[in-house]
Amino acid sequence: MAEAYLPPVPADPYVWPFDGRWSAADTAVLLLGFQAGPVERLRAAAQAARAARLAAAARRAGLAVFAARRGVRPGAAPVLARRAPLGDAVPEAGSPGWALVPAAEPGPDGQIFDHGGDNAFHGTGLEAALRRAGIRNLLIAGLPTDGLMHASMRAANDMGFECLAVADACKGTSLSRHKAQLRITTFGNGLFGAVAPLAAVLTALPHRDAASPHRDAASPHRDAASPHRESET
Amino acid sequence: MRAAGRRRADAVWPVGAPARPGAVAFLVIDMQVDFCARGGWVDQLGEDVSNTAAVIPPLARALDAARQAGLTIVHTREGHAPDLSDLPANKQWRTRVHGLGIGDRGRSGRILVRGEPGWQIVPELAPRPGEMVIDKPGKSSFHATNLEARLRGLGVTHLAVAGVTSDCCVQSTFRDGFELGFEAVVLEDCTAAVETRNHEATMAILKAYGGRWGRVVRAARFFQALEAGHG
């Protein structure tokens, strides 16, 4: 089967992916933690909208999109017991703040993985699903940069996935922690992968994403500005 | 919950102290020649090893204290099989572009290959008989190792993480320890990164929100809490 390789993405600290080989067949978008509560608390509507543009452009180009959703369930004591007294709120599974914002849902063919901590690979079938789909490269967007996003990117990197963090589709718990976490990512010629802005990725995908994020034709949900509308079971 | 939060605001272990000293694993991460000594890999890359070397004396003192306190001592070594079958292609490529790749022959033997001189733990922190030594191919000590199972088998519930580098393997191990439900601390004065600003940024990230994945404390405070917790 002839692979149609996509143009390499200018990134920091190296042109991504490392061997120039990425295609619709072996690359997936990973959307991490774009949930109503965190998006609101981190004031990350713009980053969620960019993540939605990334996902829409990827879907049009034939790439798979996977999403992870963090939530605490009754009985998930270790995580909740540790974080709640420290004042670090994790959405309760099933609550309005736990729902994915509609613009950042994985789409009709995508899959959602539920997890309780920061690492979307821990205790989920995410790695198996990526392997089954033949994925070797990951385009990652998530919240917060210094929490869920980085924890998951670290794990993916240890697993051998070639990762690109889409910087402006991520937001940290502070700007300094966001920047620092991405700088650490690029240390040593990419300890955990590479970093690039959304525009660089969109340029490399076959069809430019011309639509505004609020009129995303590929998404079944139109109203990206109303994250609380959705009710999940 | 709120009252408990206030009461525990300064606690080393916000959820609870270990039941016994052996329930605490003292994790010494990757204190290998390749990372921490002149002539090792990082040094051969032209990077400055003074930060990672400087942590050897305080860590040696803390390790002695941990041994005397009866903690479960664990050493980790990052390294790959001689045939490099456990080395991801992108990891090898990135290090080669950086100057000297994993598996390549340097002045300290083959870089980060098991059994080579540069892969050895520095003599000041050499493991003693009976201490656990974990060989890991990734950055997290829990990735592709039996560390979790061995800790559970010994009844370990708490981790004290030290070693190098703070921004890479220490942070990865600490975060994964949290994911796995261990109550963990990082010993701030017993860890370092090659670049000072990355070390400082890592400590700031780990300390935010009072320590999302566990506390960041100095070794003296850790041992003080340990002693207080056991009378």
From TrEMBL, chain A:
SUPFAM superfamilies listed in its UniProt record: Isochorismatase-like hydrolases
This protein's record includes keyword Hydrolase: yes
InterPro entries per record: Isochorismatase-like_dom (IPR000868), Isochorismatase-like_hydrls (IPR050272), Isochorismatase-like_sf (IPR036380)
Keyword hit for Hydrolase: yes
Xref: Pfam families: Isochorismatase
Region (Disordered): 210-233
UniProtKB keywords: Hydrolase
Ranges where the Isochorismatase-like domain occurs: 29-183
Name of the protein in its database record: Nicotinamidase-related amidase
Species whose genome carries this gene: Labrys wisconsinensis
From TrEMBL, chain B:
Top-level taxon in the UniProt lineage: Bacteria
Keyword Hydrolase: yes
Keyword annotations of the record: Hydrolase
Gene3D superfamilies according to UniProt: Isochorismatase-like
Family matches, as Pfam families: Isochorismatase
The Isochorismatase-like domain, residue ranges: 25-211
Signal peptide segment: none
SUPFAM superfamilies for this protein: Isochorismatase-like hydrolases (SSF52499)
Protein name: Nicotinamidase-related amidase
Species assigned in the record: Labrys wisconsinensis
Lineage, opening ranks: Bacteria, Pseudomonadati, Pseudomonadota, Alphaproteobacteria, Hyphomicrobiales
